[in-house]
Design a protein that fits this description.
The complex is a heterodimer of chains A (115) and B (115).
Chain A (H helix, E strand, L loop, with lengths): L4 E3 L2 E4 L5 E6 L6 E7 L5 E8 L14 E5 L5 E5 L8 E8 L9 E2 L3 E5 L1
Chain B lengths: L2 E3 L4 E5 L4 E3 L2 E3 L5 E7 L5 E7 L5 E3 L5 E5 L4 E6 L8 E8 L1 E2 L2 E2 L2 E2 L3 E6 L1
Parallel strand pairs in B: 2-14
Antiparallel strand pairs in B: 1-4, 3-9, 5-6, 5-10, 7-8, 8-9, 10-13, 10-14, 11-12
Classes of the chains: A mainly beta (115), B mainly beta (115).
Chain lengths: 115, 115
């Protein structure tokens, strides 16, 4: 596709359930980022993938959060035993590996609501 | 580690008036600086970026920003705003950290243009 694609666009889940969010980056982009955007707040970094290197997981808020990426393609963010504080928009972005000089291209996000 | 401060959470302005959205950053190393815009119900997109060279950079839709190293600022300006500029604006900094370049975002500034 032409841009970063995220699915689902909206997800309502019950507290305690697991959810899986998907991101399809732009073809050729080796870097992939997940961010969380809570209502009225900025973007909170979660995890970063760069090619086949070990991911930078320093932003994951708890061990309930995990993410995988298959090579330089699709990524999934999994939240186990969801809590109400997990409600947010989850944004995925991708970019060329250009040592920070390249812009990040963002998807539309997945709005997660935990009830 | 780097950080970004956007001093104003909301900036109301009348149409055709000038506007400045403030951004300050902290980093112990050289940085790359970005401004992104998020229109209602859309994903983030790049407005402009500073990598090196001229400290005044021009972006899309008539926006420009000036990099000031001594004041560690990267304020965004537009001489005359339109209703269509109503959106959320995010300042971001990218700097090396353990071999990675992970963009750090500010909390965002909501620009509200009144007729």
């Amino acid at each position: 596709g032409a841009g970063v694609s995220q699915s689902p666009s909206n997800k309502v889940t019950e507290k305690g359930k697991d959810v899986e969010l998907r991101c399809d980056p732009i073809s050729g982009h080796t870097a992939l980022y997940w961010y969380r955007q809570r209502l009225g707040q900025g973007l909170e970094f979660l995890i970063y993938f760069q090619g086949n290197s070990a991911p930078d997981k320093s932003g994951l808020p708890s061990d309930r959060f995990s993410a995988e990426r298959t090579g330089e393609s699709v990524s999934t963010l999994t939240i186990q035993r969801t809590q109400q504080e997990d409600s947010a928009v989850y944004l995925c972005a991708s970019s060329f590996r250009d040592r920070g000089r390249s812009e990040a291209f963002f998807g539309q996000g997945t709005r997660l609501t935990v009830v | 580690a780097q950080s970004v401060t956007q001093l104003d959470s909301q900036v109301p302005v009348f149409e055709e008036a000038p506007v400045e959205l403030r951004c300050n950053y902290s980093s112990s190393v050289s940085v790359y600086l970005f401004w992104y815009v998020q229109y209602p119900n859309q994903g983030l997109q790049l407005l402009l970026k500073y990598l090196s060279g001229s400290t005044l950079v021009k972006g899309i839709n008539g926006f420009e920003a000036e990099f000031n190293k001594s004041q560690t600022s990267f304020h965004l300006r537009k001489p005359s705003v339109h209703i269509s500029d109503t959106a959320e604006y995010f300042c971001a900094v990218s700097a090396p950290s353990g071999g990675s370049y992970i963009p750090t975002f500010g909390r965002g500034t909501s620009l509200i243009v009144h007729p």
